[in-house]
Structure prediction request, 617 residues.
Amino acid sequence: MGDLPYSEKLKKAGFSSLLELAVHTPVSYLDTRLSDSIVPGDLHTLEIVVIAVSRPPKRLVATVRTPISDRPIDITIFHPKPYHAALYKPGMRHTLQGKVERFGTKLQMVNPRTVPKTGAIIPQYKCRLRQDLHRRIVESLVTVANLVGEGLDTARAELIVRAHRPDETWLKLYKRYGGFGPRTVEALKFSEALDWFRRMRGKRTHFPALMPLTGEMDAFLRKLPFELTEGQRKAIDAIRRDLGGEMAARRMIVGDVGSGKTMVILAAAMMAYPHTSILMAPTSILARQLYDEAKKWLPDFFDTALVTQGREEGNMEDAHFIVGTHALLYRDLPEAPLIMVDEQHRFGTEQRKMLEQLVSKNPPSSILHPPLSKRRPHFLQFSATPIPRTQAMIDSALVDVTLIEGTPFEKDITTTIIGKKDFPGLLEHIAKETEEGRQVLVVYPLVEESEHIGYRSIEESEAFWNERFEGVYVTHGRDKNKDEVLQRFAEDGNILLATTVIEVGISLPKLSTIVIVGAERMGLATLHQLRGRVSRTGLKGYCFLFTHDTDNERLKAFARTTNGFEIARLDLKFRKSGDLLDGKVQSGEAFKWLDMAEDEEIVREAKRRAVSAYGEF
Ligand code: ADP
Ligand code: MG
Prediction:
């Protein structure tokens, strides 16, 4: 095996890269250095000679002597096998390892293991090959020189090599920490991130764009009655660099609800002008809203069309900007060098697959661009599902990612955690808000009839609210008249009682307060969405988290921030610490060492290093 090339050895051990092998650390260390004194309770490695053997039922008891103690030691083997009997015969010498314990006046060792070779610290791996084979591969490949050759710095390389080949001092520290020290863990995380970026480099395919797009945005920007936010400007700049280039863009733009993504979409359409761009939205309501906004903000020379199921407005053939739902996927679309998707997170897997085909199919040949077979449109996706920043950086190996931080109006929402005793104060607040014409939403957890969760259900609470307030409306997800109830509430209601599943399609500009009952039962992402419903129009907003667990750390953290990316990070952090919530598992959990909630700096540095070591992505 010694002569096998590098990659063959790795493959044999089941690893695809040296860094992957390097971060696959030992699970424990077998220390076979001989003990020099007996400390009852500790693990010892002892040279012994067998004095006497007896065989009580189901046991083998051997009395042995060791040069480092005057007292004999009783070795007990439960359920002995034939090889034990062969091993323990008077006069035989072995090296044994096990815990020495005091048993009355005697010393004893139960089920010790025999040690073939003494005086070493042998790493123990979970591996697919035999231990000794795996160890030999690690010994020959995981060296400081090789790791530095993979782009790692010497300091981190040394820390990692040490974890595979510890010395006495290192092992002492390892035992004291009960695992790897913080610097070793950091080196492992860094290597894992570096390896990720290195491997993903090969995965991402680059295609030439149909054409570079360099349209002017002045006519659009001049018409806007407001300044773009810094987040919007950064996103537009990134898109401008993308679209002006020779390569087809693949970018994901993530921004909280209300961060102003529509303006970024329209700016991109301006850059594509006079060529066609296509925008797909998940519902016809959204498609229409976007269409209306496009007509409002884009300059008059822009022709816009709307395509939804069985409906078409404007003329798709001549349009500069085509907005539609997935109905677009079933149409013959004109050649478009820019394709965009809004609210990407709301599309199903099937639709995403079709979209993927739409942006990767060979466009019809054209006299303008003869060698078209490999050209692709630019593709921009917009999403409102905040992801932790670290996750965004990890994802950026495969697709460019831009986060729009901040919103045009920083919402002024005060979040308060309240318990039962605070209820009278809450009622006063509600009375005051409703008297001044503002509205209140009270959200109840969705409960099965049989379940008992210690909070009143929406049905049980209806009478309570009706006795105290006028204009109380009730609706829940299964309610057939939901839209009508919402419409009436929007016009003249004071308090709306609803369950979490409610999707408020219409805007509620007078909503100033939300009360979330049993808040500790909900994921932070859900709480964030619910809180985002108030103060849409700049009203002073209030969010009350009603809970029996007013000391809840997760809720306290939530109350301190309104930044969606920070909340996504917190959500992941608390999820990891075992706080069971609704929602999905994140892709970041594929990593052994990296933590998407904590390791932003490490991943940032690893990405920089990857770029300088292996080149631009
Ligand atoms: P998103 O799609 O990210 O949820 P929208 O694009 O719908 O957000 O924008 C939310 C609201 O903010 C809209 O009414 C929009 O006109 C307004 N808006 C967008 N950008 C700005 C800005 N820079 N300054 C002020 N208002 C803005
Ligand atoms: Mg939007």
